[in-house]
Amino acid sequence: MNTVLITGTSSGYGLETARHFLAHGWNVIATMRTPRIGLLPSSHQLHVLALDITREESIVAALEAAGPIDVLVNNAGIGGFGAFEATPMATTRAMFETNTFGTIAMTQAVLPQFRARRAGVVVNVTSSTVLAPMPLVAAYTASKTAIEGFTASLALELAEFDVRVKLVQPGYAPTTQFIANGTERMQGLITPPYELYATKVLGAFATPALVTRESDVAEAVYRAATDTTDQLRFPAGPDAVALAAARQ
Q1: Which of 1, 234, 236, 242 has a Cα at 20 to 30 A from 216?
Q2: Neighbours of 115 (CB within 10 A)
Q3: SS3 of 165, please?
Q4: pLDDT digits (tens, 9 = 90+) for 60-72
C-alpha cells in the first residue's frame, strides 16, 4: 500500500488532498505545524505529525516518525497580497522561507530514500500566479516562480534514478483560508498611493468568472502523484487550466 506525506494539511488544499488520498486507500502522513484532532476522518491509515518546514530539526523528526514514504506533496505555503513598495523585507523573507526554502528542504530530505529505492514522486504545489502576471502579489509570485524553475530542473536530474517530480498549479480559490491565514502579515501593505488601484483589483477578484475548488487541487495532486508520463505541470481548477492554455 502506498504512503504519501503531505505538508500543510490543517486547512485548504492540503486538508482536502489528505482526504482525497485517504478515500483512494492510501496511507496518509498528514503534517501541520500544530496537529489538530478531528480535521480528518478517523482511520488506521492516517497518521498526523507535527512539522514546521522552516526548521531543519522539525523536518528530520517528522521524516523519522513517518518512516518510508512513496510520495511527498509539498503543499505548505503562506500568502501575501499588497503593494510591493510597502512590503517589509521581513515579510518577503518569511514567504520565501516557507514557500521556497521549506519546499526545497523537504525535497532534499526525502531524496536519499527515493534515490536508493529508485522510486518515489515529489509533487510541488505552486500557484496560477506563475501562469500569468497578477498585480499586488509580486513577492508571493517570486517565491512560487522559484519553485517552478527548481522543479523543472530537478525533474531532469532525478529521472536518472526513476524518481518523478511534478508541479501542480492551483487557480484562485476564494473559499479557502489562504488569504485569511495571512491577514495579520498583510496589514498595512496597501498604502494610500495604492488604495484606489487595490480597490479595483479586489473588486475584480470579488466576482471571478472562474474559480478553483479545493477538490480540483486535490484531484490534480493525485493525478500528478500517480502519473507515469513525462508531464511536468498540472494546472488545477478551470481558471488555472484556461491560463495554462492561453500561455501555450
Answers
A1: 1
A2: 15
A3: strand
A4: 999 999 999 999 9
Query: Do 44 and 26 contact (CB within 8 A), yes or no?
Result: no
Q: Which of 140, 172, 194, 222 is catalytic?
A: 140
Give 81-114 pLDDT, tens digit per residue.
Answer: 899 999 999 999 999 999 999 999 999 999 999 9
Q: pTM, whole model, 2 decimals?
A: 0.93
Contact 60, 38 (CB under 8 A): no
38: alpha, beta or left, given left = phi > 0 and alpha = psi -120 to 50? left
CB 72 within 8 A of CB 121: yes
13 is catalytic: no
CB count within 10 Å of CB 38 equals 6
Q: Which domains does the chain have, with CATH numbers?
A: 3-247 (3.40.50.720)
Average pLDDT, the chain: 92
